[in-house]
Records
---
Amino acid sequence: ELEDASLEDPDEEQALDAELARLDHAEELSRGADGIHQELYGADRSLTDGLAQLLSRLRKLADLDRGLSGHVELLEGAYHQIVESARNLGDYARSVDLDPRRLEELRERRARLYALKRKYGDDLEEVIATRESLREELQALDAPELDVDQLEAKAEMARTRLLAAAGALSRVRRNGAEGLSSQVTALLPEVGLHAGSFAVEFDERDEPSARGLEGARFVVSLNPGFPPAPLAKVASGGELSRVMLALKSVLSDVDRIPVVVFDEIDAGVGGAVATQVGSRLEAVGEGRQVLVVTHLPQIACRGAHHISVEKRVQGGVTRTAVRELTGEDRAREIARMLDGEPASEASLEHARTLLGLGSVQGEGATRRAG
């Protein structure tokens, strides 16, 4: 397919895009250029007609005062430039032609180049370089001096290097898995999974691949007497969120994921555990954006921002309302989460304490973003 594409110019895409833009807007370009041509030159009382009359009047004045000769020259130059531009615009307007067949050809060519870039390089220059490299390889394979024994020796050497690299990767993985398992298991009680354990299991492969000699999976046991099983199969939504919170806490320094969402992380927890979960969430949020869906005040008070999501019926239609709560509005929402509706003064005071607002109504505080 690289040969069939007949790639020669690494800048072909830019030329295609320019021609596509012209054909996509052919009618607009033709009509616009012709309109300008008419106003400048073609129509009655055009701009050039007016300039010609003004130029004639200026020449008569210059006959009376030679000091105006320079102005005559400037106006003559402007007149001739406008006439030339107007004629060129007229030619351009007549040359623009909407060609559906050519437009389709260009779109197909553009799609073909995009497909080649997905397979062979980030841009056409890399695609062309890949084609040349493959040509050289094919020429080498077609050469009469091809030595099968030599190729087999090279393949064996490559396999030896692959096994060595895969073995080194396996050792690093297993060493890292031991530390990860122990650290995550140690954090599980803090997030309400007191009997939980976390481990990394490896599935050996018969042959090495680009990913090494084995596959890895996370397994957990969340209840006494049950053997470890894959995380996705044994954990409920809330449990899964809390295991992931423990995992993200351990990996916070190396994890590059910029946004993490925790849903139902407060299912089945409360009291001191909820406070610990909130503390962990806040710590994880120091290096990335953390979004948490929660009904617990101990967790909600830890966020840098508090978003309220409510369903309302307006005019017989159910709508979802989303707004950020700040200051005393946030304190009232935390109090409602603590004590239900309506919030008591005691729960409001407790909410202000949780938020760090103090007991003075209406005061606000800036919290560190997570």
---
Amino acid sequence: MRQTAASGKASFAMSMGPSRRSPWHLEDSKGASRRAFADLTSMRRVNLSHNSFSSGLPMELMSSGSIIVLDISFNRLNGLLPEVPYLFTTERPLQILNVSSNQFSSEFPSATWKVMKNLITLNASNNSFTGHMPSSLCIGSPSLALLDLCHNQLSGNIPNTLGNCSKLKVLKAGNNHLSGILPVEIFDATSLEYLSFPNNGLQGELDGAHMVKLSNLATLDLGGNQISGNIPVNIDHFKRLEELHLGSNNMSGELPSSLGNCTNLKTIDLKINNFSGDLGKVNFSALQNLRSLDLRRNNLSGIIPESIYSCSNLTALRLSANHFHGEISPRIGNLKHLPFLSLIRNSFTNITKALNVLKSCRNISTLLIGKTS
């Protein structure tokens, strides 16, 4: 334990490094741990991450009147995450709470956040929390900037009150059991830069008219859901978009030509949908930052557009299981950094010529070509 100065007052920080010892308990039957934590009234930062703590989390840590940073990630804590009772009439100072990568399996707290007015970061990922996403999060914690609830067992709808999160930049709740639609109110959280709900059971269509409010969005990850409809034609309003993950859904229609105007894109993942039409309608030549293009298992047709060969930084190109035809252009040799190319289950002609053409792609380590059932 070491003493630090903060705002002219004496304050303390507790940090305990990784240990390979047998599991320790933050709680014990006699309440000694609870009393010890309760007596540390000047404690401001507590880092107990990457240890072997088990049992539950003492209420005294969650409800502390002094702690602003609490990190208990990567332990073996289980049971309940304490609900801070309504008896607390004054707001708690906690700003950063990280309980990720533990073994919590209880219902995720709902009332606690009403007294967490100063909360900025909440990371509860990689547990087994059940219940719903709290509807009071940004009402009670108006400064919340990061919310990570991914890899849990949460169910129900996404609360439309998340639209009140005016300072929220990162919202992650992938790999849960969420259902319903993506509420349009969520696009009122206009500070969002990272919006991620992959591998849930979300349905409905993407509402382009409302989505464009997220002018700062860099990552959109809705893959592995049941989303239908088209990619909004105004997708190019996301000027900062770098990652687009819409794979493994029920989306259809042609890819909008406006996709070629998203010049900051590094990843386009649209695999396993029902997209159709001529891929040549998208001009890829302006996507010089593109690293990965995954369009496999759709119904796209035509020849591979020449503009793709302008994406000189591509490291993975997956076009398998579509209806492409014609010959492989010699311009594929422009993809100097391409180690992975998959073209199987299409209708390309003159494979022998294609193999000769591909000799110029000297970095290819994985090549899937030809037509297999």
---
Amino acid sequence: MVSVAAAPLAACGKKVMKKETAAERARAVTVIKVEPRPITGSVSADGVLVPREEVTIIPEVSGFRVARVLVDEGQYVNAGQPLVEIDHALIKSQLEQQKALAAQAAVQAEQAEAQAMRVKDLDGQGVLSQEQLDQRRFQARAARATANAQAAAARDTETRARKLTVVAPVSGLILERNVRPGDLAAAAGSPWFRMAQGGEIELKADLSEQDLGRVKPGQRANVTLTSGATAEGYIRVVSPQLSSTTKLGTVRIHLPVRSDIRSGGYGRAAFADAGGQTLAVPETAVRYDADGASVMVVGSNNVVKRVPVTAGARGSGLVALVKGPPAGSLVVKSAASFLLDGDTVRPVLEAAK
């Protein structure tokens, strides 16, 4: 009786195993949507940092000594600000002398003109010969011309005196100074200063003919400096021609005015794709085998299907899909996942970044 009673009790304690469905047995995989994304860095180039507009400053007068230099490299100056003062002593005496000569010539011209006026109505009266009359009139005209020339010379000397203070023609950053007190001013010599107008420094980079066709003015670019710092800029100019020797074209990238962006330095620019946004997936989603490139697309029934693709431009961890699944398709993010056609998965959607 005891053994018979134990059997029903044992049967009551046994667990009933629930049979798993195919969906529950499915492996969880991360998927992403095929959608338009900007591809940054699909075109990149190294370049040198140069002033957007370089201004050179040289003296406009020669033969005078520098008295004082008022600015130095690295200073930002405003248009019209004095940079150098040249010794005024010599030209001051020249100006006084020239003004005296102009005044003397003016008096002589007035005297000659007065003499000419006195014989104005004596033509044909026999008081003076016609030759004498003409001579007085010519002398008056010559004296006035001499007075005008002396006055012009005085004004020229005044202008030169004002030029003895060398001023900044534009506002900007002093990049280089090549003048010292005691130097002799020479209009044909080396520039005294080099300036970056407005303090603007930009990246000048060379691109191949193929890459040059993929960029355009206004296109965004991310520039990495040798220090590791980065700066956001945009293409200001794309060269309309290629170098006959290197077959490269130049682009100029406008950068913000910053103290760490220095003329003469180097930078590497990564350009956003010229076509704007394009259908793209992470590079990790594309697998390569003997049959070519492909992605694993998850259908509405959560079944995986291999779809061949044609890869395009790459950059910032993305690859453009020239040919492949349509926008909105769910693609397995990691091509390293060991999945086969027909596998059932449990997709976990990753938000677009």
---
Amino acid sequence: MPLHSKCEMMTAIGIVGAGAGSAAAAFVLDEALPDADVTVLEKSGGLCGRAATRRHEGVTYDYGANYVKDDDERVVELLTEQLDTEGLVDIPEPIYTFDEDGTVAPGRDADDRKWTYRQGLTQIAKRLFGRTDATVHRRTRVESLRREAGTWTAVGTDGTEWGPFDVLVMNPPAPQTAALLREADWDSSAREALVAAVEAVEYRSIWTAVLRYEFELDVPYYGLVNPGKDHDVGWISREECKAGHVPDGESLLVVQASGPWSTAHYDDDPAENVAKLADYAADIVGDERLRSPTWSDHQGWRYALPEEGVETGPLDSAQREGLYCLGDWVAGEARVHAALANGLDVGERIVNAQ
């Protein structure tokens, strides 16, 4: 990944959202614009968006995105050469498939790298932001945006104003970004087309159950995917295949429901959803013991997976006014490596515009 020449211009940059794409953009900006003042506003208490990790009673689990693929050379270089590789682990077991009847068969991506960290996928954003001088404010929800005198201001739900920023970067999922832009105090011919383009990005909701067992499954695969999207479950994976995540002799499954099932049951009783997904896992994997996990966790992702990318023309117009959008919904691929690659691209665009 080529490094840009250093620029001495002081630039104030605001980033809304601390996802993987934001972290990659901040990394590029810090290297190329070392005097820039970068402020990141994140509504949650964590980093890396849906590449999320939890720890509980001696286990570590990635309960949103599952791993990073090696599909982009810049991302491979970023993870294996530019960032600290301590704790970076590859998942050696393959991914199999299952059909609408739950029948499992050898599947795909047997030769691809599938990376995570012993401490979980959130390490990506933590390590990227940790290499920068960016100031990250967690539990800071942006409620409105204002454009005046050629700069941007973000206003929090508590009335705190952040800025003014010469450049504003938007990383929330497209529906949330569209809502902020729609109500923004921004008098521009670019806004209407931008809002329409961002609103047009459709999302798939995902409801996830995490299931722990005091025995280890004897199966040859790490994950199971339903490529035909004709089952109520879309994905099952084994966290014990990730070094450092699960104690020896135990299993921890991440079971992600399909988009239609997730939408239909999103607001149902979580315990009932977990029980249904445990039953599905037992049927698909073929092990009756899976119906009774030792303990469980769950997470609903309202805006989990963008179905397509955004129209780029309106984004280009907004960039001329110092507004940039980034993330997997901009890249058009619901993958961590795509979000990272897009963040690198947007960071470079901002640098080149200075």
